[in-house]
Design goal:
Length: 48
C-alpha cells in the first residue's frame, strides 16, 4: 500500500500506528511477487 505525505497528514489516525488498518478502498494492496517454499530447511535456526 502506498500513501503520499498529504494523504498521511489528512488521515483521521496516525498511519504509522501498527494497530490500525489502512482503508483498502483508498489504498489498494499492491502485489509484489510470490514466495515459494521448495524444500525443507537443512538447519532450521540458520535458514529460518
Amino acid at each position: 500500500q502506498i500513501m503520499t505525505e498529504e494523504q498521511a497528514e489528512n488521515m483521521p489516525y496516525n498511519p504509522f500506528d501498527l494497530t490500525k488498518v489502512w482503508y483498502k478502498g483508498e489504498f489498494p494492496l499492491i502485489p509484489v511477487g510470490e514466495f515459494e517454499l521448495n524444500r525443507n530447511p537443512d538447519n532450521y535456526f540458520q535458514d529460518v
